[in-house]
Each structure stands twice: as C-alpha cells, then as structure tokens.
Backbone:
C-alpha cells in the first residue's frame, strides 16, 4: 500500500513533536555541546550497536554496579537487567573522550575504560578482554 503525502507529513510532524520532548536527542545534544554529526558518523553508528553487561564505578567508593548497557544512536542506555523495558538512565556520548584510566585515577582493575566530557568522568569495567575491546 502506498502512503499519501499527507500521511507521511503527519507521521513526520508527530515524530518531530515527540523528539522535541526528549532532552537527550542527538539534535539537542549536538546543539548543547556545540558539535555536529556527519552522515558518515550516522552510518557507522547504525552498524555498531552493542549490548551487554558492564560494571559502573560509583563516584566515591570502591563499589561497582553491574548494569545491562545498550549502545545505540550515540548514547548508552542503562538497565538493571536485559529484561527491563525502560532504562534507568542514559548517557549521550557526543563530545566524550574514551581512554584507559591513569594512575592518578586510582583504579587497579583490568578491562576498565574511562569516559570523560569536561569535568564529567565515568569508569566502566568489562568482564572479559573480548567485551572490553568491543
């Protein structure tokens, strides 16, 4: 069945209205962080969607929280388990740098990576070398 042009426009405007209400849309994050995303970046992002368990470090403790993490559309979505319908939180990654922790970070664990944007720093630990490399 073919859609009429009116159906297509009403669908788009409905989607546009919905996306304006989400604070972590790609458009909003690009504007807020003064960055842009190319079509090539979008193509790569579509091909590189991941999900699995990661451990997140608590800010001022030695504890780690195990979370199901979905990486899609330039954003990490955090769930308690893979069966949850809605994320506990999300972290738009545009502008973040990925690195390994340095000695000053005080993290003495294997398979840890650091996400940082300005003063926002997050540490995540994978459960295996394979997961860490992905």
Residues:
């Amino acid at each position: 069945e073919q859609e009429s042009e009116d159906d297509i426009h009403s669908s788009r405007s409905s989607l546009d209205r919905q996306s304006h209400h989400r604070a972590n849309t790609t458009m909003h994050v690009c504007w807020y962080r003064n960055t842009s995303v190319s079509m090539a970046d979008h193509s790569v992002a579509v091909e590189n969607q991941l999900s699995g368990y990661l451990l997140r470090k608590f800010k001022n403790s030695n504890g780690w929280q195990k979370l199901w993490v979905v990486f899609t559309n330039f954003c990490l979505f955090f769930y308690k388990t893979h069966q949850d319908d809605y994320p506990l939180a999300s972290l738009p990654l545009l502008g973040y740098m990925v690195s390994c922790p340095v000695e000053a970070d005080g993290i003495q664990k294997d398979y840890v990576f650091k996400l940082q944007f300005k003063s926002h720093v997050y540490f995540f630990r994978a459960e295996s070398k394979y997961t860490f490399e992905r």
